[in-house]
Amino acid sequence: MGGRGQFRVQSDDGWASMGGYMAAKVRKLDQQFEEQKGKEETVSSLFENVAIHVNGYTSPTADQLKSLMAQHGGRYHAYYSSTSTTHVIASNLPRAKAKDLRPNQKVVKPEWIVDSIKANSILPIQPYIVAAHGVDKNQRTISGFSSTSANSNTEVDVPCCSKDVTSDRNSKSEEPSLNQSKSSGKIPATTDNNFLSDFYKHSRLHFLSTWKTELADFVRSLVNNPLELSGLQKLEQLSKNSKACSYSLASNERCIMHVDMDCFFVSVGLISRPHLIGQPVAVTHHSADTPSTAKQRPGTDPEFERNYYKKKIKRPSTDNEETSSNDVSSVAKSSTSDTVPSFSEIASCNYEARSAGLKNGMFYGKAKDLCPDLIAIPYDFEAYREASRKLYGILCSYTRTLEAVSCDEALLDVTQLILQTGVEPSTVAEHIRQRVKEETGCNASAGIGPNIALARMATRVGKPNGQHQVTESEAAEFIKDHPVKDLPGVGYATASRLVELGAATCGELQKISVDVLKKEFGNKTGQKLYDLCRGVDKREVVQSKERKSVSADVNYGIRLTTIDEVKTFLKNLSAEVSDRLNKAHVTGKKVTLKVMVRRPDAPLETAKFGGHGVCHTMTRSKNLDKFTVDCDVIAKEAISLMTSLKVNVSDLRGIGIQMTQLKSDFEIGERRKSTMEKFVKSRPSVQPSTTPAVDVESVTAESTAQEIKELDQSSTRVEENKQSDFSTSFLDALPDDIRREVEQDLQAQKAALERTQNQMTSSVHSESASSMTSQNTATSKTNRSSSRGRGRKRSTAPKKSSKVKKTSSAGGSPNKLITEMFKVVGKSRLDEKPVKIDLTTSQSSNDDVGDKVQVTRKLQPEFEELPVDDRPRSPSPPSLGGATTTSGSRDAVRRWVAECAGASPMQDDIDEIVTFLQLLVVESHNLECVSLVLRTLRRCIMSSVSREGGIITSWVKAYDFIVEKVQEEVRRLYDDITLYVVPIT
DNA sequence: ATCCTCCCCTAC
DNA sequence: TAAGGTAGGGGAGGAT
Ligand SMILES: Nc1ccn([C@H]2C[C@H](O)[C@@H](COP(=O)(O)OP(=O)(O)OP(=O)(O)O)O2)c(=O)n1
Ligand SMILES: [Mg+2]
Ligand SMILES: [Mg+2]
Questions:
Q1: Which of A368, A379, A408, A375 is nearest to A392 (CA)?
Q2: Which nucleotides of strand B lie under 7 Å from a protein CB?
Q3: Per residue in A202-253, pLDDT tens?
Q4: Domain A36-128 top-level CATH class
Q5: HSE-CB of A236 using CA atoms within 13 angstroms
Q6: What's the CATH fold of domain A550-674?
Q7: Which residue's alpha carbon is nearest to atom 13 within ligand 1?
């Protein structure tokens, strides 16, 4: 709990959650489309000889016109055909679309269709001819659509940055050399040898994650451990001595207990600071003796990042406004014109602090504003780990059916324990809490329920330092008034969608049928929601299964300037992953690289010191020939993947490497060398009665070599991982003056890019797969288990696998090979002139072009001139294949490629896509959608177009053509900025 | 139907 | 200053 804000962090742009919200709206629209289609019946043959193609915004919308054509015997061309389309329907005719039409193409306003139907005859087109550049501002959208989108965008309010602040921030003139200020470095050099360990040493989320993994391993190792359960034994004694112990459960009733430490980090921290008990305290990296505000760093734009928080909280939610922990909408009282509140996060705050509105994950600056008396204390990770170890030692002495939820939290299935002892569940909880208090000095709270969900919700009621039980019979009443967000597994996006459906509380959610929920959320999720809101949860308490992935990410402090630095960083990160694979005793076969890239419209300097700021992410992965733990192999792939992404180095803000398709190093059935040693081995014994009955030493494992068979073929794929959904065009959502500044910033960025010429480039990159012909063999295991050092130090250490080594250095040293990959950097851009695409761009998931446009327009001054009773109308958005949404247009692209994959693409179709995308750029300013459509197109081409003959070549050409055409418009509109686009191989 | 890939979402 | 990691559940949609 309290976890509301913490993952605002990851999406400080607010898009991730916007995604679900937007998606909900899109679904609604799609539904309306469907209904409309269902009603289509031919009522006349009025347009027998007419074939229309709708371009741009129209009223009625393209889909509605499509229906009308169907009803009146006409044809509707999703794609413009210069030979068979008789009429192009459009409300205006910007240069962008006019130039792609055949000469003398009739372009008429949509009213021509409507009026002709009214008159039941085809009217002359003259009065409806659209003049080039004529823009009809009096468009009206049709019923359902405008209301839907109009309602929805009221949540997206204008972020009213104060002009003076923003302009100061963005003013480049004040900061003569942005690049220098960046690399010279207040931010520690990303390439320092100790960067990774320094970062992880301080990252609470890293610890949280690794501890959970270790604890899950530990718990798993207990399953077959037939040692005594001291806690259980004590309860049995209790039950013998007391006749009152006859608690029973219904035949199939379970008894689940959830135990969670109170404000864990703070509680542990206060053990050594008893004088602070009773005062509001928070754990943060922000030094306690420095002010909660810092001097504004030049080049940053706190408002820019804060605006995302604003958007987030504008969306409907069952939460109070307060729950957005990092809503910084109210200007910090303590900040003055040249200071900004600290962006350091609070990992945990105690209940005294929470009464002032503080939440875990909140920024310290904001917290200090809410609670001026707040006392900051530093992290003490060793102490947390120690407390965690004690907690789990206690828990596992009661039952082996426990599930590690986190370092301060676990689920216990105490059904058997209750049945055996007859002890009241609440008594068990009291015992456990008491022992936790004794051993750790910290308070734990507990929840008891007939299932996991109710137990967890009960815990929240019990907190702090308490417990609560919800019985089967109380469940319905207990859950009724809870906001849906309180249901475990229902987060921000899901809650928003539910609220859209009218279900803010569980009681309201109960009124929605399973069928509707399943349709809306999918089968499993729909059923889960249906059950959860009734207090039903069938999940069992289980120890986690085999790990499916091992990864290392750093999305903080990444400020690189040269390709060598990137290369070095990737090697270091690969070594980290290699280490983790070794520790997990697995080998991996698929490498995935994830990068966060500064969005072109985000300031070069992030508001949060070292933060990733407003970014989009890209991932690209490659299936290796064989399983590996070799850091050189991983690094080589990572570099190769990075190269293929052509990322502008200075815009990198986050990098991650993930290994999947794991295979255990151990033979089946062999006991793993669990990390329990770390948790239990050194656990100090207390009294016999309170000592967890786990014999650590008995749970050891021998490494066993495993043959690795090479079966899979190497393959590369691209993941378009939308880290965030964003429903409004960034630029458009801003007031004009601020947008101009942003555009200036774009220019500056472009200029910087030209200066540095530091893109990764793929021009020299050659697939490494061919060199990977040998296999890991049994020898690899031995090497692996002995190679405790970093893999990258291999030059001085035994090779993990001589065969791997041999292959990776086949053409010289690995380093040399890597170096060669980057040899041409710097000039490649000029060489590859036709494609000026440097990067993929936007992420967004703006899944509803029309709505976005509408939101956009709402924020534009000119629309303030509309009549008062007229809400801003949504002009018909650009459409592709009749689709007006991002997902719809991507679908259209998919269909197109799928249909035509057997042959070369037709120019008409290509033009259609070009027109659509250009309109998105020129009219909607929806670069996110453009980017997504291009990504889809690229991926479809790569995956489904036949590789035989020249067909693939023509598709690649088509892609490049489309990209170039789009870039033309982007450059025109954004002063020579080039849209980042994933290059086609 | 079921599996696979590429995502989104959630939790601490 | 600040340390925004990481793994799993599952849905959409295509392949089999
Ligand atoms: N955004 C967050 C949330 C949690 N944590 C860490 C610090 C917490 O102390 C610990 C446990 O998380 P909980 O959700 O259990 O929160 P607390 O234990 O702090 O408070 P409580 O459980 O009493 O609500 O995880 C964190 O670093 N960042
Ligand atoms: Mg807790
Ligand atoms: Mg917890």
A1: A408
A2: 5-12
A3: 999 999 999 999 999 999 888 666 667 888 888 878 777 776 677 888 888 9
A4: alpha beta
A5: 13
A6: Dna Ligase; domain 1 (3.30.1490)
A7: A1
